[in-house]
Write a structure and sequence with these properties.
With about 300 residues, this protein is an alpha/beta fold. Helix content is about 40%, strand content about 20%. It has helices spanning about 25-30, 35-40, 55-70, 80-100, 105-130, 185-190, 200-210, 210-215, 245-260; strands at about 20-25, 135-150, 155-165, 175-180, 220-225, 230-235. α1 (about 25-30) crosses α2, α3 packs across α4 (about 80-100) and α4 (about 80-100) runs antiparallel to α5.
């Protein structure tokens, strides 16, 4: 909004083509704001900033993401030793930072690297405990896509699933997404409002895309919160998240997109993956919320 009474709202091109493939994150954007979905996924609007003095939310999240992927592909991924896990995490962090920043990282970035190192120390302890409970990492950064049939017409959806675990004792599966906020995120609260309306479909759509792998086995979905001073695995059963209702909601969104219903502004969230994130809020050192994009 500019001033008191003027709202800048560019017109919508109703002749624009529909994407052949929709990323999972597009559904969250549409639920928040059809118009932001239009700008992001139809018009492909982006922001550019080459003067950053520190890592922005996406940059910090991507750094954490890389290091956790490095660990998930290492021989230590199913270790029960916190030290072995920590050593591999630090190895990945040091390698990435050396190649990305060299020896001349700006002071704010160096602080952020040390903040992440502290978080990874806590992660190593929790990961070792989880392994002792029978959980084995099956896959990390799994690029997955599946055809979603709506009204007898196929729409491909895709996602990059951070981590897939299976418990060697119980046979239970777990679909996990890494998060790096400053406080613990609960997957159920992040996916539904207090009134019961869906605000995100990320985990249900991951579950949907992995049905050929999971089958009828019990499955939990949730977050690995890699936050200051602790790591918290927050999961719930797929049954408790009401997957059938989530898939019905995704179908309705696809119908709306096909009908080019993307004029409503809604209530866009201006952090994380959203295209205007750099126009508001503080940087990470100042406490900005951090999101990891799954695309």
């Amino acid at each position: 909004q500019l001033g008191e009474n003027f709202l800048f709202f560019p017109s919508v091109d109703l002749e624009s083509s529909i994407p052949d493939v929709l990323p999972v994150t597009a559904f969250r954007t549409y639920l928040q704001s059809p118009y932001m979905f239009y700008l992001d996924h139809i018009q492909r609007l982006e922001t550019i900033d080459d003067n950053a003095q520190e890592l922005d939310a996406a940059g910090f999240g991507n750094l954490a993401h890389y290091v956790l992927e490095y660990f998930g592909n290492s021989k230590a991924k199913n270790s029960e030793s916190p030290k072995e896990i920590r050593d591999v995490l630090f190895q990945g962090l040091d390698w990435y930072c050396r190649n990305r920043f060299g020896n001349n990282a700006k002071p704010a970035i160096d602080i952020q690297i040390q903040q992440l190192r502290h978080r990874l120390t806590q992660f190593a302890d929790e990961q070792a405990q989880r392994r002792s409970e029978g959980w084995i990492i099956q896959d990390v950064e799994s690029n997955t896509q599946k055809d979603f049939i709506v009204d007898d017409v196929s729409q491909t959806i895709r996602g990059r699933i951070d981590r897939i675990d299976k418990n060697e004792r119980t046979g239970q599966w777990a679909i996990l997404d890494y998060k790096t906020p400053n406080t613990v995120k609960d997957p159920q609260r992040e996916h539904k409002s207090q009134s019961g309306e869906w605000t995100d479909l990320q985990l249900p759509l991951y579950w949907f895309m992995l049905q050929d792998l999971i089958g009828s086995s019990p499955c939990s979905v949730g977050y690995v919160n890699v936050i200051p001073d602790q790591t918290a695995f927050m999961t719930c059963s797929a049954h408790d998240m009401d997957m059938d209702d989530a898939i019905d909601t995704a179908s309705e969104i696809i119908r709306s997109i096909r009908n080019r219903q993307w004029s409503a502004l809604g209530k866009p969230q201006l952090f994380g993956e959203d295209i205007f994130a750099d126009l508001c809020g503080e940087g990470l050192v100042g406490g900005m919320q951090v999101e990891i994009d799954d695309d």
